[in-house]
Amino acid sequence: MNQAAKRLAHIADHILAPMSAPSSSRAAKVAVLGASGGIGQPLSMLLKTSPRVGELSLYDVANTPGVAADLGHINTGSSIKGYVGPDQLPEALQGCDLVVIPAGIPRKPGMTRDDLFNINASIVAGLCQAVATHCPQAWVAIISNPVNSTVPIAAEVMKRAGAYDPKKLFGVTTLDVVRAEKFISEINKVDPKDVSVPVIGGHAGITIVPLLSQSQPPLKLSEDELAKLTSRIQNAGTEVVEAKQGAGSATLSMAYAAARFADACLRAQAGEDVVEYAFVQSSVLPNVPFLASKLRLGSQGTVQELGLGPLSSAEQRNIDAMTPELLGSIKKGIEFVEKQGVEAANK
Ligand SMILES: NC(=O)C1=CN([C@@H]2O[C@H](COP(=O)(O)OP(=O)(O)OC[C@H]3O[C@@H](n4cnc5c(N)ncnc54)[C@H](O)[C@@H]3O)[C@@H](O)[C@H]2O)C=CC1
Ligand SMILES: O=C([O-])CC(=O)C(=O)O
């Protein structure tokens, strides 16, 4: 079974099919910040069915008691509690092993992810300040867009609070991999669980770089067809934004992808050797301080960046073409914290 198949078998076995918690490890406390939202609710539901979660902490600025009461009737072992508003955030975070952050506004048609910066930057900065204070040991998985900027913001805020561990901070890019696996499975007419394909770079437009030459099973497509498939993967988020006609962006597929990523984190925390993609502080490309790529995860976080593998000339061109935009988004995030300071960002 290849890596992708193993990961999906894990989701099927451990997340989607309720069963007893593994006896070898303590079930984790997981917080979802933004738990009442379009992603937060279905993600919380998937986490409620995970045997690796012992305690589920649902935080938002509204509606979490209702969401928690509803999910609390699902007959799995985990306990669940809803927390509302900044006064309740410390208790929501206390003792967390993993904090997943889908808080913030989504796109409407015609917007880029960067158009969300002005609102979401402050939300992520404020929440990460609280994580640094109340659960500095936790792994943090950021979903809120623009990921290419919100992860550097989180890093900078946590650095200033003396609580930054680059091995434990992740931007969630799993949906790009999930989409690439699905689209390739349709072209090759195979089960998606038998597809594996790297998607590296960042999480916006051209910064999303699928490495289709490394697809397994291999793709037999012309240069033109490969370019079209690359573009579809890069613009898949916009495909959903347009189909939803102003009602938001991907929520259900994102919840599925985030549950896959959370499962990878919890398995790694429990001592499994896990391979997954995420946007992290990186040394894979010279002078690119954050990058999504293939990671080996262990009990203390990222153990190793596994590199990009052999690239086709088109893939190398795509990486060269996206690097200035990615660097600009990273710089914008860092400068946001430098200019405004965390206190101002929290207002
Ligand atoms: N990384 C990725 O691949 C993806 C990222 N996203 C991003 O995820 C974010 C959330 O999307 P949706 O769930 O669709 O939005 P939504 O608007 O449905 O939900 C967002 C939730 O965040 C809450 N919130 C706002 N400020 C908060 C704060 N300070 N503390 C806690 N909660 C707060 C809101 O009350 C709301 O319940 C967006 O920024 C979106 O662009 C969406 C899809 C994929
Ligand atoms: O497109 C958006 O705004 C939401 C997102 O990040 C995605 O679906 O990949």
UniProtKB/TrEMBL annotation:
Residues 173-337 form the Lactate/malate dehydrogenase C-terminal domain. SUPFAM superfamilies: LDH C-terminal domain-like (SSF56327), NAD(P)-binding Rossmann-fold domains (SSF51735). It catalyses: (S)-malate + NAD(+) = oxaloacetate + NADH + H(+). CDD domains: MDH_glyoxysomal_mitochondrial. It is found in: Peroxisome. Its main location: other. It is an enzyme of class 1 (oxidoreductase). Residues 29-171 form the Lactate/malate dehydrogenase N-terminal domain. Keywords: Glyoxylate bypass, NAD, Oxidoreductase, Peroxisome, Tricarboxylic acid cycle. Belongs to the LDH/MDH superfamily. MDH type 1 family. Homodimer. NCBIfam families: MDH_euk_gproteo. This is Malate dehydrogenase. It comes from Dunaliella salina (Green alga).
